Amino acid sequence: MERTIPLPILILAILGFCYLLFPIVVVVLAGLTTGEFLTFPPKGLSLRWVISFLQSEKYLSAFFFSFKLALMTMIVSTILGTAAAVFLARSRFVGRTALRAFFLSPVVLPGVVVGFALYAFFITSGLGISRTIWGLWIGHILYSTPYVIGTVGASLATFDVSLEEAARSLGASPMRAFRKITFPNIAQGIQAGSIFAFIVSFGQFEVSLFLSAPNSEPLPIAMYNSLRYKFEPDAAAAGIFAITLVIASVLLTNRLVNIRRLLDRQND
Asked: Domains (ranges, CATH) in the chain?
């Protein structure tokens, strides 16, 4: 029997969805304006500032730097987050809940607090990585890994451990049982966590504000510095490309998941 959504709930859901999308619409229209300054609603629509972004060495270098930084962060965060999620799901010891809360604390704490704490630690520890790409990378990994832990942990919560135990009883080693049984069943959670880590790293502002160097600025910092001195729409045009990259990443992940489901059905 097909369930119908009550009309008031449907209206509230649509209004909430429009509320979340409104800032994106503002950024897109502001980046396509024909005016000389960042205004909304735009005076007209033009690709002038989009072309200006594509011809700007400052914005392009910041965009590709953010892309490479987010890609590196995604790889490391996915590995660390998956390992931590498996450890928390399979281990039973006193303090496990507190340890999980500690792993997820960067998400709970404000980004400004995390960024300042890392900056102060790098300065006082004498590691010499304050305001370097290595320190920035560590900060992004620290802030992105909890998202992987959360999504992979949710996949492990619905996974039937008896399947892996059956593989172990048939002679499979722990690593082989995990690779052949557990990993395929939580692969979608890992993919979702990795894409969350990429998106969070690419759009991270607070941590980057404290840890980025002048010669290696991520795109959000480049946009912020540009708006500090001039209020031109090229910053909004840069936001259009950032939004496009995030949407493309989500669609690609959804496509990969659908392909995996199709292959699984064919194998069955």
From this structure: 56-267 (1.10.3720.10)
